[in-house]
Amino acid sequence: MINFWDGKRVLVTGGAGFLGTNVVKQISLRGAPDFIKTPRSKFCDLRRWDECKHAVKDCDIIIHLAAKVGGIGYNQNNPGQLFYDNAVMGIQIIEAARQEDVDKVVVVGTICAYPKFTPTPFKEEDLWNGYPEETNAPYGLAKKMLLVQAQAYRKQYGMNIIYLLPVNLYGIGDNFNPEESHVIPALIKKFIDAKNNNYPFVVLWGSGTATREFVYVEDAANGIILATERYNKPDPINLGSGNEISILNLAKIIQNITGYDGEIIWDTQQPDGQPCRRLDISKAEKEFGFIARTPFQKGLELTIEWYLK
Question: Which CATH number fits the domain that encloses residue 41?
């Protein structure tokens, strides 16, 4: 599929971000696009219609990654902003792409769109069987509406829009800002700070019993590229590793890699978030040959090594 990218004019919204930089890198390695636009948010506000129109102009392919995101605490404190920003950016990008007659649009959604008590492994058919977990429901529902729009535009206008559901990402280049970070960078920072300052214990949110699935960012980027090249159907597709781990065991692994020998205290007054997360990833392999290749321990070691540097 290398020739797929030859001569293409590509827009990657969020292309300067954690996932976006990996997507752009893989596009550049796989072909010879005419150009790859990666507008920065400080110069291109996708909440503004005129700036969306300008961004999509003359593009053949759009990969929409731009999003306002954060961990449980950030979601609790900013539900309105997370809903508005994510809904408006996505809705306007898709509509601008329709008006510009873009050949293909790839919308990257979120695992947070799934119902709170989805049976594991999460199957794409379960996406509408309940309300999302409350702490991140505004974000999850905003992104979920883009699937509705994508399918509606495909039906009415014949647009080629696909929708992907990546599980929690981690890896080199992640966001370690404690006000915004997700669980893996948050834990890495806590343990390293505790070790450097000789703290006798660290306090972690929740009970540790909740489970999560993680996929290394380079693997997720590869999945997005494969789907862009090979997948053209209306049904949403999960992207993940298929491996589930409790937050308790995750914390122990990161504690061991970082070399912190203090105590872990669980603050059970704080929320766990969704009780369980593990995806059924069989469709991604069947439809476009995606399999996550990075072993979890290796991915964590690479991430921690990068952060320490």
Answer: 3.40.50.720
Specify the pairing of strand 244-246 against strand 9-13. unpaired
In angstroms, rounded to a whole number, what is the distance separating the alpha carbons of residues 164 and 71?
20
Look at the chain and report how many structural domains it folds into. 1
| Global confidence as pTM | 0.94
Tokens 């449980």 -> residue: 72
The length of the chain is 309
Q: Is residue 57 part of a domain?
A: yes
Domain span at 239: 2-169+213-243+276-293
Q: Say if 179 falls within a structural domain.
A: no
Is residue 139 among the annotated active site residues? Answer: yes
Catalytic residue among 139, 163, 216, 231: 139
pLDDT of the residue at 97: 98
Which residue in this structure is represented by tokens 């009780």?
275
Give φ, ψ of 100 to 5 degrees. -90, -5
Strand partners, 11: 37, 62
303 domain-assigned: no
Residue at 110 is within a domain: yes
Q: What is the model's pLDDT at position 1?
A: 54
Q: How far apart are CA 297 and CA 214, in angstroms?
A: 11
